[in-house]
Design goal:
The complex is a heterotrimer of chains A (about 325), B (about 525) and C (about 300).
Chain A lengths: L24 H7 L1 H18 L11 E2 L5 H4 L1 E2 L3 H7 L4 H19 L1 H12 L3 H11 L7 H12 L5 H8 L11 H29 L3 H9 L4 H25 L7 H7 L11 H9 L5 H28 L7
Antiparallel strand pairs in A: 1-2
Helix pairs in contact in A: 4-15, 5-10, 5-14, 6-10, 8-13, 10-12, 11-12, 12-15, 13-14, 14-15
Chain B lengths: L1 H24 L7 H7 L13 E9 L11 H14 L1 E9 L3 H11 L5 E4 L2 H9 L8 H7 L1 H14 L1 E2 L2 E2 L1 E5 L6 E6 H6 L8 H14 L26 H7 L10 H15 L13 H9 L5 E5 L6 H8 L5 E3 L14 E2 L4 E7 L5 H15 L1 H9 L6 E3 L5 E3 L15 H4 L11 H12 L5 H13 L4 E2 L9 H23 L5 H29 L5
Parallel strand pairs in B: 1-2, 10-14
Antiparallel strand pairs in B: 3-11, 4-5, 6-11, 7-8, 7-9, 12-13
Helix pairs in contact in B: 1-2, 6-7, 10-20, 11-19, 19-20
Chain C lengths: L2 H41 L3 H5 L13 H8 L2 H32 L6 H13 L4 H10 L17 H14 L2 H9 L4 H12 L1 H17 L2 H6 L9 H15 L13 H17 L2 H5 L14
The chains are: A mainly alpha (about 325), B mainly alpha (about 525), C mainly alpha (about 300).
């Protein structure tokens, strides 16, 4: 039963009670005003602390001079963008960023999920508690330290693993000192660093699964593996989709520290990424316009990707992000 | 009428003469009296300012424990001895050393920057200037308010402080320093029966001998940011034009012949395993230090100080180790004269904040003048006699390292306060200076290293050449510097690691790539400036 | 195959599966703790061996010098206290903001839901940059205050969206509707129904907020300048390490006595990280199975 657009209409008490969709705006606000009041707090914070500094984006279109400030610096339109896009390394940086982040996403996104599912199967409480705590330790180490340790482990001449390989009669492998090897090692380390921490959110989602569903599945003859596939996974699907969409938005950005800490100047094919480029530009203590412009470029791409992914998700029947 | 006219003319002439005499009497140096009188006299504040002036002085905050950089015994002493005397409120503004450029940028953006803008590196100061952070200076004004300071630094300021025709920078003195040294494992030399090498060829022979004896390699680090690697391969004395075109501390002269020779030698050393084959991973001091201390490599270059942990660590890992000083000519090919870069005669580079008022600026000059007085500087550097230090028979201050009372200096001896006028301790007497340096730089029992370094440093004095200075800004340098620095690292490593028979072709290709990345533009712009004579 | 046999086979496969799972998790966990062991070993080893890179998992020599140095300054204890206070306040504020945003937005029938969500999500990808942010803090008079470490980052769109999704799916509309029909206002629903039912996600996000705040010091680096007593633990440790490294580069003037940065760095990492790691076991008990059973008869 669809309702007629008439703002004086009384609410119909039938199945569609709580879909006030066709009522007027003011009516809806009045009906659930408390929700809007609740929303005021976060909106205020967002306005003050996030939107309050967004005026800074304007220097992507200006020739920014610190003394002149944001408003008085000369307007240059798209000149800064033109300059950046024609930089010799820009295309390379984009390619590398997409490559590194894309591969990390494909290989790294499922890992926390798999780990969480496996952890969920563990019955011995003590073992579960201890391993969980150990698993998220890497998250607390900054990449500066991880980079140094990585070279100690994977280094060509004196790395622990290569020493072991040589002792066993094999030839040394340039894990971090040859382009393709570097790519694999980088992804491996990046995934390793964040997978433990990533299990937390999935474990929380798994606890929300109704145990009755498991019982029903067992009754229907499902073994443990099938229970995971047909009960657990579908129940945590919304969380997975949300995180997937949000991570997709980061594909043009990614982390500066992880690449910078692991790169070296002899293996440069894949190591120039956009965050590294921004860092190298900012380091001269100037070029704010350029680094802001690149940041803006990344943000726009991220937004487009997220909205697209959200649309796709909705088309596939999922709830989506927005 | 005619009489009045004569009277008036006479009066005018008298007045003009008086003005001229007064102006000529004003203290100046380095400028003609004519210019001074044209600018007019400066207000004399030697009795203090009428209304109190707040002067904001930047000071590095290195987060030393228990030390408040903006409020301690010495800041109070400065206020009492200087500020109160001239009715100036001396306010110290903390600048975090680690994030100093960020700090300055943030403060400049919000209008809170102190009266002095400073940095140790010229490229960064030029960048600040590009942001229009500083005001143009009147050198006569400095000479007027700070005669002692001007005596010390006037020439330097005149020579180095000009940018695009205007004067913006002033400087602190940099005394001669020779504690950047290379040490070599003497016990390894003894083990292969060789003497300390005196030429590059001998050095390579030593390294080969070490390798064969299984002792270790020659060490090596990644060259980045400061490009002095090619000095040992330069001819003495090359033409001014060539020197101005290629010699640049901040941009590597990849296509230049000295670089070619350097890379060729490096390629030879690399391919024969004479140096660390993973040298490109040695991006900071810690890694090269680790190699030296653990006995992997036999040479190490560093700034030696009396409390360096390097020697103790080396001995802990290898109690039989002995070290010796490696002279400059060990890295220089046979027959070449050991040329080194002459350090600029200044330490801290400073500018006046564009928003500083005339009184605040005058106050800064007076502050520099006050700190340039020997007594004041000495007090800040050493503290109170009998408490922080005692004077020995020659007049050298021997520090009392355990002192922890009221007059305690900061962990780096208050350097961040007196660095505005000078970079180190300076005594009037050369002998005393040397003794002070020995105390500061030589670990106990290793004085011979500083002695050798001193000898080497001064025997090669005539072959030190300062960088060329352009009187116009070479804009392509600022434009391409960071890209070229990255390219340099990538390309030179590639050249070093290429097989020996492919070196020339790899080098050629690398040169092309380097030129295209922006170096050609820099060369063109510099050449144009040289042709126009805009350099010295 | 008889049923009994089938069961035996399946129990055996289940056993094997169990062993494999336990082994896999054990290996992965061990790989995660190794770097930490490495850092810990360095922190209790003697300088000389650490400088020479000779310490990997087993400490060489034994020395607590670095820890002594870290704790020699009483202000470290105070900065620890500051970090704790800031982290607690930040987490509470952050959770309040997140709940106030996520709950309304999780109701599908809320008018303007899409627009408001977009409004929040936008801030996840667009930021002004360090200078505009500094100017903002300056104009709000937040520089050198405790509040500057609590207020600006308390709003986290990332956490918000996670909670929104979670509430969307775990708190059904019918549950809310029945509560509303019983006469409960939105605030009551929030406190009496939503929060108790969302313990796992609240615990998770609280952990995210707390850990995020504890580890980060970048903002304190920029905004706490003159009032040094407000420096949080991580910032103080960062300065401690960097101050040691800096002195080795001081060209002319002799530097003061300092331990080698490597050992000090390692000790600082341990001191900074151990407190926050200890929190997780206490959060774990909130990951209990949901108490949804029997609440709603569909």
């Amino acid at each position: 039963m669809k309702s007629v657009k008439d703002k004086n209409m009384q609410p119909i008490t039938d199945r569609n009670t709580y879909t006030y969709g066709k009522r007027s705006l003011s009516y809806n606000i009045r009906k659930r005003w408390q929700l809007y009041v609740l929303l005021l707090i976060p909106i205020t914070f967002a306005l003050i602390f996030k939107y309050g500094s967004m005026f800074g984006l304007v220097i992507a279109f200006k020739d920014y001079k610190i003394i002149k400030g944001f408003w008085d610096s000369n307007w240059v339109g798209l000149d800064v963008f033109r300059k950046i896009f024609s930089m010799k390394d820009f295309g390379l940086a984009v390619r590398n960023t997409l490559l590194l982040n894309g591969l990390t996403l494909i290989l790294g996104f499922p890992m926390p999920i798999i780990l969480a599912l496996l952890l969920n199967e563990i019955k011995k409480k003590y073992f579960k508690k201890v391993t969980q705590t150990l698993l998220y330790l890497p998250h607390f180490l900054s990449f500066v330290i991880i980079g140094a340790i990585a070279y100690q482990i994977f280094g060509l001449n004196s790395g622990v693993i290569n020493n072991l390989i040589e002792n066993l009669g094999g030839i040394r492998i340039p894990f971090l000192q040859e382009n393709s090897h570097w790519l694999v090692t980088y992804i491996f380390i990046t995934v390793w660093q964040s997978m433990g921490w990533g299990t937390i959110i999935y474990l929380a989602a798994i606890t929300g699964v109704n145990p009755e569903l498991y019982e029903a599945a067992t009754v229907d003859g499902a073994n443990r593996f099938m229970r995971v596939i047909y009960v657990t996974l579908p129940c945590i699907k919304p969380t997975v989709v949300t995180l997937l969409i949000m991570n997709l938005g980061r594909i043009m950005s990614g982390s500066f520290e992880s690449v910078y800490a692991l790169r070296n100047v002899a293996t440069t094919k894949f190591t120039t990424t956009i965050p590294v480029l921004i860092y190298q530009m900012g380091i001269t203590g100037g070029k704010f316009s350029e680094s802001t412009a690149i940041g803006l470029f990344q943000s726009v791409i991220a937004l487009i990707l997220v909205l697209t992914a959200d649309w796709i998700a909705k088309k596939l029947g999922e709830e989506g992000l927005i | 009428m005619k009489r009045n006219f004569k009277k008036i003319t006479a009066l005018c002439m008298a007045a003009t003469t008086a003005a001229c005499l007064a102006a000529c009497g004003a203290k100046t140096s380095g400028d003609t009296p004519l210019e001074t009188s044209a600018k007019g006299a400066y207000t004399d504040y030697s009795n203090g300012f009428d209304t109190q002036v707040t002067m904001q002085i930047p000071v590095y905050d290195r987060a030393f424990e228990g030390w408040n950089v903006t409020d301690n015994y010495y800041t109070n002493w400065i206020q009492a001895e200087f500020g109160d005397k001239y009715n100036i409120n001396v306010e110290f503004v903390a600048i975090t050393r680690e994030s100093e450029v960020n700090d300055y940028m943030q403060m400049l953006a919000s209008g809170k920057a102190p009266d002095i803008i400073f940095h140790y590196d010229m490229p960064q100061m030029l960048a600040y200037n590009d942001e229009e952070a500083m005001q143009e200076l009147d050198l006569d004004e400095i000479a007027y308010y700070a005669p002692t300071y001007w005596d010390n630094m006037g020439e330097t300021i005149n020579t180095y402080g000009a940018v695009d025709g205007g004067h913006y920078f002033f400087f602190a003195q940099r005394p001669e320093a020779y504690n950047s040294i290379t040490v070599i494992r003497k016990d390894w030399l003894d083990a292969v029966n060789m003497d300390i090498p005196t030429s590059l060829e001998e050095f390579n022979e030593v390294l080969t001998a070490w390798k064969e004896a299984g002792l270790g390699n020659g060490g090596l680090n990644l060259v980045q940011n400061a490009f002095t690697y090619d000095y040992p391969f330069r001819d003495w004395k090359m033409s001014d034009e060539e020197h101005a075109l290629y010699s640049d501390l901040s941009i590597a002269a990849f296509t230049w012949e000295p670089t070619h020779k350097y890379l060729k030698n490096l390629n030879y050393q690399y391919n024969n395993g004479l140096v660390d084959t993973e040298f490109y991973l040695n991006t900071d001091d810690a890694t090269t230090q680790a190699d030296f201390v653990s006995g992997t490599s036999g040479t190490y270059n560093f700034y030696i100080t009396s409390n360096t942990p390097v020697i103790d660590s080396l001995l802990a890992n290898d109690p039989d180790a002995e070290i010796a000083y490696l002279p400059f000519n060990a890295l220089v090919p046979e027959g070449t004269i050991p040329q080194t870069r002459a350090y600029w005669p200044f330490g801290m580079i400073m500018g006046i904040n564009h928003s500083a008022s005339d009184e605040e600026r005058a106050a800064v000059w007076m502050y520099l003048e006050w700190m340039s007085q020997e007594d004041n500087c000495f007090y800040l550097q050493n503290g109170v006699e009998g408490e922080n230090y005692t004077l020995d028979a020659l007049g050298l201050a021997i520090k009392n390292t355990d002192y922890s009372g009221e007059y305690k200096l900061s962990d780096n001896n208050n350097k961040d306060y007196w660095c505005l006028v000078i970079e180190g301790a300076q005594y009037a007497d050369d002998e005393l200076n040397y003794r002070a340096n020995l105390n500061n730089w030589a670990p106990k029992g290793y004085e011979y290293i500083i002695e050798d370094s001193y000898e080497d440093y001064f025997s090669t004095e005539e072959y030190r050449r300062p960088d060329a200075l352009f009187s116009v800004v070479i804009s392509s340098v600022a434009e391409y510097k960071s890209e070229l620095n990255e390219k340099w690292k990538e390309l030179y490593v590639k050249c070093a690691m290429a097989p020996e028979d492919q070196f020339e072709s790899v080098y050629e290709a690398a040169c092309q790539e380097y030129l295209q990345a922006g170096y050609q533009s820099i060369l063109d712009e510099k050449q144009a400036a040289i042709d126009a004579g805009n350099y010295k | 195959m008889t049923n009994a046999h089938k069961k035996k086979v399946s129990t055996r496969t289940a056993r094997i599966a169990d062993i494999l799972i336990y082994a896999f998790i054990a290996v992965v966990s061990l790989s995660c703790v190794l770097p930490f062991l490495h850092v810990f070993s360095k922190s209790i080893s003697e300088e000389a061996f650490v400088i020479a890179n000779k310490v990997f998992l087993i400490p060489k020599g034994f020395s607590l010098e670095a820890y002594k140095k870290v704790f020699s300054d009483a202000s470290i204890i105070y900065s620890f206290y500051i970090s704790v206070v800031v982290t607690i306040l930040f987490t509470i504020l952050g959770m309040i903001i997140t709940l106030c945003a996520a709950y309304p937005l999780s109701r599908r029938d809320l008018k303007g839901r899409k627009v408001i969500t977009m409004f929040f999500m936008f801030t996840m990808y667009f930021t002004g940059g360090i200078i505009p942010e500094y100017l903002l803090m300056d104009s709000l008079n937040l520089l050198d205050t405790l509040a500057v470490m609590i207020l600006p980052l308390a709003f986290s769109p990332y956490n918000l969206l996670i909670m929104k999704t979670s509430l969307q799916n775990s708190i059904s509309d019918s549950l809310i509707e029945s509560a509303r029909l019983d006469g409960a206002g939105e605030f009551t629903i929030l406190s009496r129904i939503v929060i108790p039912l969302s313990k796992p996600i609240i615990a998770t996000l609280s952990l995210f907020y707390a850990v995020g705040r504890w580890n980060a010091y970048q903002d304190a680096l920029f905004y706490i300048k003159q009032n040094v007593s407000l420096r949080p633990l991580q910032l103080k440790l960062y300065y401690l390490v960097v101050a040691s490294t800096e002195s080795f580069q001081t060209a002319v003037e002799g530097a003061a006595q300092l331990t080698n940065p490597e050992v000090l760095k390692a000790a600082c990492i341990i001191v900074a990280t151990v407190p926050i790691i200890c929190i997780y076991p206490f959060i774990q008990k909130y990951f209990v199975k949901g108490t949804m059973i029997g609440a709603v008869k569909e």
